[in-house]
Input
Amino acid sequence: DTAVSQTPKYLVTQMGNDKSIKCEQNLGHDTMYWYKQDSKKFLKIMFSYNNKELIINETVPNRFSPKSPDKAHLNLHINSLELGDSAVYFCASSSYRGMDGYTFGSGTRLTVV
Amino acid sequence: AQTVTQSQPEMSVQEAETVTLSCTYDTSESDYYLFWYKQPPSRQMILVIRQEAYKQQNATENRFSVNFQKAAKSFSLKISDSQLGDAAMYFCAYRSAGSGTYKYIFGTGTRLKVLA
Output
């Protein structure tokens, strides 16, 4: 049973397109996150939701819009994709406030050509 | 703002030997959490070990242990009896214990190679 599942695992798309990445967790966690890992492997938080409420919104272009229909799902929609958006995007979840650690999804490698 | 520094971009260890990965952090807070995550070539991020700053005892998980030096703001990871499956990127992460602060701050990672 996959605890945090992301789809798709790989995404290749052209500049200017709009794409979505979906994330679902079956751990009963309250909090979900999107992190971006760049080509140098640096991980940086983008967004976090707690029980469908946006609680972290880092400095991210407004082309990126998260949506959490319920506490088990957190999707990421990206408009007008740019070359610089190419990265691995990780979804993660945690019990309240993440003090016990995150459970990560397997990542989505986005390549913009 | 808090920062996390991993000064070793790459380390190598012989199979069955012991290796220590370094992590230092900068914070003015007294209560926080520290983590080590492993990212093998499969890309999956796996929690290795967790330390609560108010606990003086160093955390241990099987072959993995930490040396937590709060005054020095140092949190190193020791891997004993290294195995080929330990080869991965290792990330140190910091999380404030303050309310409303949910995010982790990650270091830049250390790539560990295990030599047969």
Summary: Residues 86 and 114 of chain B are 7 Å apart (CA to CA). DSSP finds no helices and twelve strands in chain B.
